[in-house]
Amino acid sequence: MTTQTLTYTQFIPAPIEEVWSFFSNPANLKKITPPDMQFTIVSRPETTELFEGMRISYRLAPLLNLPVGWVTQITSVDKPVMFEDEQVEGPYEYWHHKHTFTAVEGGVRMTDRISYRLPYGAVGEMIDTLVIHRRLEEVFAYRRRRISEIFGIGQEV
Fold first, then answer.
1. Could you say which residues form the signal peptide (predicted)?
2. I want to staple 61 with a disulfide (CB 3.0 to 4.6 A). Which of 38, 70, 125, 130 is the partner?
3. 80 occurs within a structural domain
4. Has residue 157 been placed in a domain?
5. Are strands 66-78 and 55-63 parallel, antiparallel or unpaired?
6. How many angstroms separate the Cα of 34 from the Cα of each of 7, 92, 127?
7. pLDDT of amino acid 156
8. Is residue 156 part of a domain?
9. Domain hosting residue 132, numbered range
10. CA gap 130, 127 in Å, rounded
11. pLDDT tens, per residue, the chain with 157 residues
12. In this structure, what are the phi and psi dihedrals at residue 84, rounded to the nearest 5 degrees?
């Protein structure tokens, strides 16, 4: 299967330090994940400060209520403008997520760039087309709504 890339951008009407504090704290991921995914952090370091090499283990049910284990590792941190995580164990053959925060007038432009690849070649491509891509779109649409509820709806100037 070829690597797929999705990019989502959202304006957040808050100072970059506040936005960074929220998104760099793994405990807040549950607040922006659809409840039907039953997202739970299984283990993570006690700190709320991200660091390169940090591993976080999750349990979630992304499809058909089937539980999946997932371990990500923080591979790069540039506080307060960017961090990246990659799947170490989980359902994808490859998963890389880059979170970028750019201070702009009146707030922050946040960009999520996800690159992923499913296993199983042509079968994986078909599963992506029929299910996975759509589910990721739903997850990030939910995140957009929750982020607007948490930070307020602003308009980039």
1. none
2. 38
3. yes
4. no
5. antiparallel
6. 19, 19, 21
7. 62
8. no
9. 4-151
10. 5
11. 799 999 999 999 999 999 999 999 999 999 999 999 999 999 988 887 899 999 999 999 988 888 999 999 999 999 999 999 999 999 999 999 999 999 999 999 999 999 999 999 999 899 999 999 999 999 999 999 999 999 998 666 4
12. -130, 145
- Does residue 24 belong to any structural domain of this protein? yes
Residue appearing with tokens 């957009």:
144
**β-strand pairing of 94-104 with 55-63:** unpaired
Classify residue 41 as exposed, middle or buried by CB count within 10 Å of its CB (0-12, 13-18, 19+): middle
CATH number at 26 reads 3.30.530.20
CA 49/CA 36 separation, integer angstroms: 27
pLDDT in the model for residue 75 = 98
Q: CB under 8 Å, gap of 24 or more: what pairs does 22-30 form? A: 22/150, 22/151, 23/99, 23/101, 23/110, 24/48, 24/49, 24/50, 24/77, 24/79, 24/80, 24/83, 26/50, 26/56, 29/58
pLDDT at 155: 63
Angstrom CA distances, 29 to 1, 39, 105, 139, stand at 28, 9, 26, 12
